[in-house]
């Protein structure tokens, strides 16, 4: 009884791109991963996983993209600007991490 592991395709269809936004605008960081069993999608910002459950401005869209409503940006508060990565996980296979996309917020 040798165990044959078949290769299961698991990859990103869409990865996030760098975005330039302005304060108050909405931004979508695109991400979509393919696998026979639907991957669990999470997002990292500056290397830390975002907790989107209690976040009223950021939400995960059905396709895995991240929607940021009304970008916040002031001299001392720049919670949205930074580096984002999409993280897709399939229990039996493991995790793939997307390229890093930079969100820049333009000043006035």
Descriptive notes:
The strands form three sheets. Strands 2, 5, 6, 9, 10 and 11 form a six-stranded mixed beta sheet that branches. A three-stranded antiparallel beta sheet has the order 3-8-7, with no helix packed on it. With 108 residues, it is mostly beta strands. It has no helices and eleven strands.
Break the fold down into its secondary structure elements and pairings:
Elements: E1 10-14, E2 19-22, E3 27-29, E4 32-35, E5 40-45, E6 48-49, E7 58-60, E8 66-68, E9 82-90, E10 94-97, E11 101-106
Parallel strand pairs: 2-11
Antiparallel strand pairs: 1-4, 3-8, 5-6, 5-9, 7-8, 9-10, 9-11
Q: What structural keywords apply?
A:
mainly beta; Immunoglobulin-like; 6-stranded mixed beta sheet
Task: Write a brief caption for the model.
This protein is mainly β and 108 residues long.
């Amino acid at each position: 009884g040798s165990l044959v592991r078949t290769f299961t395709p698991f990859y990103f269809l869409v990865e996030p791109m760098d975005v330039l936004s302005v304060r108050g605008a909405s931004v979508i960081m695109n991400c979509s991963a393919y696998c026979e069993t639907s991957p669990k999608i999470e997002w990292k910002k500056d290397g830390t996983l975002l907790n989107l459950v209690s976040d009223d401005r950021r939400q995960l869209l059905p396709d895995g993209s991240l929607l940021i409503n009304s970008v916040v940006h002031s001299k001392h508060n720049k919670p949205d600007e930074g580096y984002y990565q999409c993280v897709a996980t399939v229990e039996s296979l493991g995790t793939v991490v997307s390229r890093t996309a930079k969100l820049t917020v333009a000043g006035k």
